[in-house]
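User: Hi! I'm working on a homework problem where we have to compare a predicted structure to a textbook description. Could you give me the structure for the chain below?
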Amino acid sequence: MKITLLFFLGTTLIQLVLLNRYFFALLGSSQQNKLQTTFHYLLSGIIIYLSSISFFPVVITGSLSMCSAFIISWCYPARIESKLIFSIVYVILGFVAETLSYGLISQFHLSSDAIDLSNEQTRLPILLLSSLIFFLFIVFIKLFKRQRDYKLNTWYYLILAVINIVSLFILHTLFFYAQENNMYIYSAIAVLLINVTIIYLFDELIESFQMKDELQRLHKQTEYQNTSYQKISNSFQMTKRIIHDTNKHFIYIRACIQAGEREKALGHISKTLQAMKNSYFTIATGNLVIDSLLNNAINISNERNIQITHHISIENLDMIDPFDLCIVIGNILDNAVEAAQLLPTPAERFIFIRIFTQYQMLTIYSENSYTPCNKRRIKKNNELHGVGLLNIRQITERYGGHLTVTASETFKTIVVLPINRGV
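Assistant: Happy to help. Predicted structure tokens:
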């Protein structure tokens, strides 16, 4: 009895270790605290133990194995769709490992009788050999898996799930013909290669979508830069025209004064001053990125009846790449404008932006009016809104900075970037 208990406990422990290595190879390090991790492993261990001591049908055993894997997957940072797919693949790889170990042991089995899987003396070597084979699978996966995670279209996950389920069905069918034809081992290896290929293609698919987002980000950056340069060019051209016509304006104003038409003179002076005001940026900090993007946001806010308040106090930002700064500030302002404009009345629409440097840190604080029920309307393509925040987060992490986003009665974004170090 004690030997049996130790046998099943050892089986459970080995499975938990394999689960740990499997998800580490796929998803990286766990991000939960020790208490949460212990709870997940304990719950998964109980399921594995109950499955080991009970002779359930293959379908139930496979379902329990997938549940135990899915529970462990929650210790790792990934989307629920990825966790589910990898949990199914875990069952498939486990089934292949057991099938291969059963086939190898059958080759060295001296008796002509079929191997009795209910016998502990035969189950133990099968377990140990299958665990070794599974560990080799993990080592192989680790060679090419780059621990990416990205939200794909639901259809991709459905297709992967269907392929995995079909693989399980094939393995289940092959196992019943194991005693009649040893060629089933090669079929199991083929299924193994198919599913390892799925993991590889899944990783490549994620990379292609991430590259697509990167191209969109670069395209957006180019648009920002073109807009900035165009505004500066227009500003210079307008200023040049005003300077060129200054003499004519003075002659006309003098004539109005001499004729006693004071109102016409004052009106023309006001009109000329307004033209001069429109010819240069409202904000002129000397930083092209901040000046162009913030002035552009001010113009858009005025057009959409959004009250925008700003406070800028910056020093030298040469250590921050203008490309990165443009993406951070551009996305923050875009999100703020698009959220604020959804408020029903102009009185409710506001944006407050503060950008300042202190203690060798650049801090960007943005707060805007926000209606949670309208958050799905903020973007025509709702995924782009998330991509914008993801791009901001990637840049802040690369600089060793910090991003905080809170949404309650107002939407607040805080970005802190060190300016005393390179990237």
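For your comparison, note the following. The two ends are 62 Å apart (CA to CA). The chain is about 65% helix and 10% strand. Good luck with the assignment!
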